[in-house]
UniProtKB/TrEMBL annotation:
Pathway of action: Steroid biosynthesis
EC number: 1.3.1.70
Any one GO MF annotation of this record: Delta14-sterol reductase activity
GO biological process entries: sterol biosynthetic process
Family recorded in the similarity comment: Belongs to the ERG4/ERG24 family.
Membrane topology summary: Multi-pass membrane protein
Gene3D superfamilies: 1.20.120.1630
Pfam families assigned to the protein according to its UniProt record, in alphabetical order: ERG4_ERG24
The entry's keywords: Lipid biosynthesis, Lipid metabolism, Membrane, NADP, Oxidoreductase, Steroid biosynthesis, Steroid metabolism, Sterol biosynthesis, Sterol metabolism, Transmembrane, Transmembrane helix
Protein's UniProt name: Delta(14)-sterol reductase
Subcellular compartments: Membrane
Length: 350
């Protein structure tokens, strides 16, 4: 693809803007009106808590159903996202930059002293713009962090389904595509089934492997398929198990973990289960899952492995920041926890 064709493909169109606006409008409306369990977020510094309506699974199933009916009635194309992938990417990028600028400007003018909306301005423009200056910015009563994470997860599934449709139209599905689509669908559905657990954590999502497989035919043998499934399963068990243990502990510090009373350091820090194996064990699960999404692409190119490599660098950097913040917040309690659990992410290695 020469530069002219690439630039043309990246140029946003009215159709790509309409797709993005329709998607966000759907999420804003139906995320607010559909029934769902209302859960409390973590306790903030001022003692308040945000509340989240966890109806993401119902919103997702309804959206997929509506799109399926629309495709059956020839109102929408199943491959519209994969066909307009680059322009949707550039449109989303521009939208994201504009949103961050608006949030920066709004946050700078905020006089709200609550923990969620109080402005934390360092004076470093790039730092404040990149990391944000409000903890939980809102728009029309919608928590934007929760909203955009949900949008990312739903968008990931819609992109995958569009890529899948295009692959089906182009010919028989490869094992690699089946693996990637299966792992991704399980991961996304799991997120929405346990959406309330995500009110006390964060999420990333990854898409590059699907795009790669849609343009490159990769066939893998049975042994790599089994190995890939094992990596995904271990990653899922660690990721889901660690996050579930943390969520349950925050709600009930006396709840059993692996059939035993939890070991708690200083009455604050969980040192049982996965959290007794490594201080950031959930990162290990996330890394293994990221790797499992890339392994179906084989080893012919490093491009599909961009995300797990990027995530490894990101999580090590984030882990160092977490360590410094926890050391300052918990002091001697954190020092005791580090003595008891010396491993950061991967037991007996790092």
């Amino acid at each position: 693809m020469d530069l002219g064709i690439l630039l043309h493909a990246l140029t946003p169109s009215l159709e790509s803007v309409a797709i993005l606006v329709t998607f966000f409008t759907y999420l804003a409306i139906f995320g607010s009106i559909l029934p769902g369990k209302v859960v409390q977020g973590v306790v903030l510094r001022d003692g308040t808590r945000l509340h989240y309506r966890c109806n993401g699974l119902l919103s997702l199933l309804l959206l997929v159903g509506l799109l399926g009916v629309g495709a059956w009635m020839n109102f929408v194309s199943l491959t519209v996202i994969s066909d307009r992938g680059l322009e949707l990417l550039s449109t989303t990028f521009i939208f994201s930059v504009l949103v961050t600028l608006v949030l920066y400007a709004a946050g700078s003018r905020s006089h709200n002293q609550g923990s969620s909306l109080k402005a934390h301005v360092t004076g470093n423009l790039i730092h404040d713009w990149w990391f944000g200056i409000q903890l939980n910015p809102q728009f029309l009563g919608i928590d934007l962090k929760f909203f955009f994470v949900r949008a990312g997860m739903m968008g990931w599934l819609l992109i995958n389904l569009s890529i899948l449709a295009k692959s089906v139209f182009d010919g028989p599905l490869s094992r690699s595509m089946i693996l990637y689509q299966t792992f991704s669908a399980l991961y996304i559905l799991d997120y929405f089934v346990y959406e309330e657990y995500m009110t006390s954590t964060h999420m990333d999502y990854r898409l590059l492997s699907g795009w790669w497989l849609s343009h490159n035919k990769v066939e893998i043998t049975t042994a790599p398929v089994i190995a890939n499934c094992i990596v995904f399963l271990i990653g899922y068990l660690v990721f889901r198990g660690a996050n579930k243990q943390k969520h349950v502990f925050k709600k009930n510090p006396k709840a059993l973990i692996w059939g035993k009373p939890p070991r708690v350091i200083g009455g604050k820090l969980l040192a049982s289960g996965y959290w007794g194996m490594a201080r950031h064990c959930n990162y290990l699960g996330d890394l293994l899952l990221a790797l499992s999404f890339s392994l179906p692409c084989g080893i012919s190119s490093p491009i599909p492995y961009f995300y797990p490599i990027y995530l490894l660098i990101l999580l090590i950097w984030r882990e160092r920041r977490d360590e410094a913040r926890c050391a300052e917040k918990y002091r001697e309690v954190w020092a005791e926890y580090c003595r008891l659990v010396p491993w950061r992410i991967l037991p007996y290695f790092y």
